[in-house]
Sequence to fold (452 residues):
Amino acid sequence: MAVVHDTPAVNPPISQAGLEQLCRDAVQLAREQGASQAEAGASLDAGLSLTVRMGEVETLEHQRDRGLGVTVYFGSRKGSASTSDFSASALRETVRAACSIARYTAEDDCAGLADAELMAKEFPDLDLDHPWDPDPDVVIDMARRCEDAARGYDARIDNSEGGSVTTHRGVRVYANSHGFVGGTPSTSYSLTCSVVGRSGESMQRDYWYSVARDADHLESPESVGRKAGERTVARLGARRLTTRKAPVLYVPELARGLVGHYLAAMRGGSQYRRSSFLLDREGSKVFPDFVQFSERPLMPGALASASFDAEGVATWDKEIVDKGIASTYLLDSYSARKLKRKTNGHAGGVRNLIVKPGHMTYEDLLKEMGTGFVVTELLGQGVNGVTGDYSRGASGFWVERGEIAYPVEEVTIAGNLKDIFLGIAAVGKDMDVRGAIQTGSILVTEMTIAGE
Fold:
């Protein structure tokens, strides 16, 4: 149970040190009010979001957000409260509200902080903070160049959903009554373009994007725009397929979704609730021998790097899948206690999960597939996490003799995730690193494709 205060912030701290002190004060106030344990998290975020459409500025927004959350434990009773007001009076009221709630909630033997000995003690510089405060004219020019490159790619591109630039810089701090205090300043920047093409009765939309911690590492606006235009034009004249079984190749940006289904099934919450299609499969073979999932949370500059998780637990390198075998569940402290284990630093999810690439390029994978379906867009939410049944609307390309034959739309791909995982034939070396899961294309030996 939690309570939220929406009062406006008053004189918020503007530095990591200020947030750290705010969290320490919250924990101390909770202990003074009788809490046996307490934790607090605070954040400050600022950024800009801009969209240019058909050459004109459509939106230009500056955002500033702040928040403080406090959780207290009275034995095994838990209460939480949050606020966006950083004033001393609001801090006291937020802590008081959390303590009041905790006194009336049901007992839960698994509630509480992660064990003190698991707290992070080292905080290496992970190269996550690259401040960039561009003049709006610079950002407008980037978005306009991106959209112009897409619209100019082909005469069949006749409309646009815009070119967009977003910037973000923030700092997040976590503290608890074990004496742990840790903060992480970070930045992220993105450049996106989406356009619409038309040929006869066929109308298609597609996009491309680039994201990075350092604005200097973004793809050029022209490159992002051309890619969006190229992808859109390639989809024109899409056909439907008759129902059949065939190999399916997931491009990297969609392959990470397959990996995500595995991770969801192996989360501690899914396991202790007995609601996973991979129930009790730790130590079992789930993938072919060549499949390896490695977590590397301390990679400098990566988009999901962190030296500690959302509970202050130190992160470390792990093999999540080792030679096709499910090596471990993904546990926070609560789910670990439910399963009579210890947390392994996954409060808040995985951090830089890398699917080991194979030796084949995307073009090699097409040749390896011979005849089959490349899926480039998925629709709907037809995934049952309890049974593993998988059915998603899809678009993409039909492949014959190892070459793209024609675009495809309005089909459904289906199977069971247990079979899909064991049926992985190859992972490409065309790695997409734009997220917490980094993978190349994934080729599945056979799936059902439902069409006309």
Q: What stands out?
A: The first helix runs from residue 16 to 32. The two ends are 49 Å apart (CA to CA).
